[in-house]
Amino acid sequence: EVGSARGDTAFFFAPLVGEVVGIDAAEPAVAAARAAGAARGLGNVRFEAADSRDLAPFAEGSFDAVLLADFVEHVTDDVLRPSLAEAFRVLVPAGVLAIYTPNRDHWAERVKAAVPGLQRPDHIAVRPAAEVVRLVEGAGFSVDDLFFSASPYPLLGALDRLFSGAG
Questions:
Q1: CA 45, 47, 48, 49: dihedral to nearest 10 degrees?
Q2: What is the three-state SS of the chain?
Q3: Confidence (pLDDT) at 147
Q4: pLDDT (tens digit, 9 = 90+) per residue, 47-66?
């Protein structure tokens, strides 16, 4: 997992896979994730401090899957392009890249963009899905699936289903 922060997503996937490696450029985040992993007694999760643009600690073809969950919206193209290239490098042939990120064309993101103070200040690069696809394909990947997931929050989920054609 690229941009694993405190490890929540890595911990979610740990029971479902053989091993999870989380990387983050922020040493405090890596330390917090390591402590949380130790407290949970998870032996198949580890966290490393690494820059997503340079995954030199990992050999070519090291991973079956690379996940960028809540990462893409936090980085500009000059960081995302080399990060995607490195993800491509460390994946086995026919490995899977999975991305979870807001879509700028979604109704909720349009509302956040229009109302001052609603958008998170660290969401510096909320892109339309087509732009994410272009960047992913530019790194050598083919896009096999692209889909929208309704919010798990009841009210927002209901609005998502109501306005699903709008985003």
A1: 170
A2: CECCCCCHHHHHHHHHCCCEEEEECCHHHHHHHHHHHHHHCCCCEEEEECECCECCCCCCCCEEEEEEECCHHHCCHHHHHHHHHHHHHHEEEEEEEEEECCCCCCHHHHHHHHCCCCCCCCCCCCCCHHHHHHHHHHCCCCCCCCCCCCCCCHHHHHHHHHCHHHC
A3: 85
A4: 999 999 999 999 999 999 99
| Whole-structure pTM value | 0.87
* Whole-number Å distance between alpha carbons of 62 and 92: 6
Contact between 97 and 68 (Cβ < 8 Å) = yes
pLDDT tens-digit profile of 131-167?
Answer: 999 999 999 999 998 888 877 778 878 888 887 754 4
At 165 the pLDDT is 55
Which residues, at least 6 apart from 11, have a Cβ–Cβ distance to it below 8 Å? Answer: 36, 37, 40, 42, 45
Place of tokens 């009841």: 154
